Amino acid sequence: MEEREASSATTEGAKSPDKLKQPSKPWHSYISEDLPRSLMDSRDSAIRSARSLHQNSSTHINSLQDFMLDMRSKYAVYEDAFFRKVKDGVTTARDHPTMTAGLGLSAAFLLMRGPRRFLFRHTLGRLQSEEAQFVKAEKNVNMLSLSVDLMKKESKKLLQRADLAEMEMITGRTELMNAGKNLQSLVRSVDEVEAQAAAQYLKHELQPPQGRVRLIDSCFSSIGSFMSDSLLHSTWILPSRDFPC
């Protein structure tokens, strides 16, 4: 690298004196030599650009002419086909006057407002009405599905309530059965009390009057204490005890 830099420095040092030795051209030599040369170069470039532009424009013009000729031929073909169709239609109408009259009457019939509305009402209008009915039916189905869901929920609630009512009924039945048993035991106790009272009544009849009064008082006091105890303890079963009366 250092050798290359040294060699380049020597070559530049050798060239620099040559550049310094070359004298600058005077202005008249520039006008006499360089100016005509630059003018000739600019003229040649202008001529070349003009030739290229002419060639390009000629190619574009030729392509445009070809396109116009193609379009003209296609237009002629389509025009011939159109007029041929028109001629065929005219000949067909002339050969079939009944069909032509029917088509003309139907066209005039369609151009009138009333028949056009009638046809629209019975074609597109019917389709629109059917679509509206379909939408309405779909809404009704959705509402019906919602009502069915609500009925299912209500039926579940009713089933739960029925189960609760059945359980309450079973518990009430058991309570009634227990109350019936208690009443039966109470009736038996009352029968026993009545039997004891009848026996004591016979004893009262055989005792003197003063003993009867004391015995009746003691009997009522014992019965009152028994009833108060029964009410306090909420029991309906009378114990089988002997009253003094």
Automatic annotation (TrEMBL):
Region ranges (Disordered): 1-32
Keywords: Coiled coil
Coiled coil: 148-196
Protein name stated in the entry: RGS1-HXK1-interacting protein 1
Organism: Carnegiea gigantea
